[in-house]
Amino acid sequence: RAKECGKNTFQFYAGDMNAHALERLSLESALRRGLAQNELELWYQPKVDLASGELCGAEALIRWRHPQRGLVPPDEFIPIAEDSSLIIAIGEWVLHTACRQLRRWRDADLRAGRIAVNVSGRQFKYGGIVETVRQTLQTHGLPSECLELEVTESVAMDEGEAMTGVLRQLQQLGVYLSIDDFGTGYSSLSYLKRLPVHGLKIDRSFIMDLHKDSDDVAITRAIISIAHSLGLDLVAEGVERPEQRDFLVAHGCQSGQGYFYSRPMPAEAFEQLLRHRRLALS
Ligand code: C2E
Ligand code: MG
Ligand code: MG
Ligand code: MG
Asked: What sections of the protein cross the membrane (predicted)?
């Protein structure tokens, strides 16, 4: 488009690029400030045993309570943090906050199950993730099996041998490892077989139309069958309807999370849920 409209348009275009870069830069410094001033929050979404409806844990999901913008979802700031070293500091904050919270719940005799946190590729590459996890668990006196790390399929598959090494160390440490958004990357099955992980999370995009799209039915069945053959646990993301749950139960997917059970909620609300151990199901 710049070409067909001539020179001036190119100037405009370059100007837009700068504006975009500037916007990112100012968001990054606002985020740095936000981290320092305690504007970040962890929300929790229940993970449920699909057949019984019982709560088995939660995924911790970050939010940014921006003084002007209000509650900012992770998709609007995590990618920016991932482009800089900021994701390392945020990742450490997430681990620390989730573990401190879990410690409190355990001290209050509330059975929260396993808490999952999302980990970015950069944390694996440069963040000294193994040492950070070991120290954080130790600081809060938590057994390693109550912590789950979710890493996306593309990250788990991309980094080759170095990544496998880090995952193996984490496995030796005893934390639970799962591959997030499974089915959206390009896993080679032989590589998946060698990866030291415990479970797969079926991406929400396949679950969304499960009740009406035969391709999604085929893909979901294939993923379930792969997990079964490789001895991996399964969690379905984005369960919103009873038909989806029924399908998943019938085909042998043990656990799930989604709006059908609950949206992510602040720590205090999740704590109420733990006290009453009841999910409001339709
Ligand atoms: P994710 O790890 O795949 O998390 C699942 C996302 O799906 C969450 O969005 C959750 O709120 C949403 N979700 C759950 N159930 C349903 C449902 O039934 N329907 C629909 N439409 N959505 C559902 P959220 O919280 O906006 O997080 C988006 C992504 O941001 C996460 O995807 C994850 O990749 C990233 N993220 C969140 N927290 C963190 C964090 O602490 N660290 C890092 N590195 N990334 C994070
Ligand atoms: Mg996740
Ligand atoms: Mg996911
Ligand atoms: Mg996702």
From this structure: none
